[in-house]
Amino acid sequence: MLQKQVIAKHGEEAASAWDEIKQKYDEQLYGEPGGSQPADLSTFLLGNVQGFANILWGAPWRIGHVSANLKLYTSDNPVAAFQHPVREWLETAAFGSLIYYVPLSPSVLLKVERRLDGFDESDPGGSRRRRDFTSEETSVTRHVVSRETTKYTFSDGLIVPRKCVNNCLQAIEDAKIRFAARFLGFNPNPPSFNYEG
User: Fold this and answer.
1) N or C: lower Cβ tally within 10 Å for the chain?
2) Does 162 lie in the same domain as 137?
3) Helix/strand/coil (H, E, C) string of 6-67?
4) What is the pTM of this model?
5) Is residue 41 part of a domain?
6) Does residue 147 share a domain with residue 58?
7) Rounded to a whole number, what is the largest CA-CA distance in the chain?
8) pLDDT tier for residue 150 given thresholds of 50, 70 and 90
């Protein structure tokens, strides 16, 4: 799509430039010494960056295939985080309170859940499951990955636009808060600090 837009704007000069670019490997374009896969960065972060390594080791997670009609993509920020909208008013976006979405391939997703208080001491890591993801879960993942992208997105398919991402994720968060307030007695507002006496 970007290629078509550039060619439409700049004409034949752009077409010849695209032909030249298609002949090069990504590592040549970015000045890297060798081939690189976007999944390599995810592997490095989960295995070597202490915070992510601890989360993978100490929090419940799930891995599975995504819906066949939706493909995942990754970005220059491959471990995409999402703060659960239904939370205590004082809960910050600390490592252990976020949900992490890690696309391992276009069809395989790793979802690391947030660590909840009162976890089972006999099973400190929580559950590890292999279960496929629904179309809705896959769509939410694509939106979170797009929101967390800083500059580059790696994909062979369609990418969710930033405006859609912000609108959709806000709508999901609002709906979850309304549901929790109505049916679970959740109060998203901080307590009053006005004391008398």
Assistant:
1) C
2) yes
3) HHHHHCHHHHHHHHHHHCCCHHHHCCCCCCCCHHHHHHHHHHHCHHHHHHHHHCCEEEEECC
4) 0.68
5) no
6) yes
7) 78
8) confident
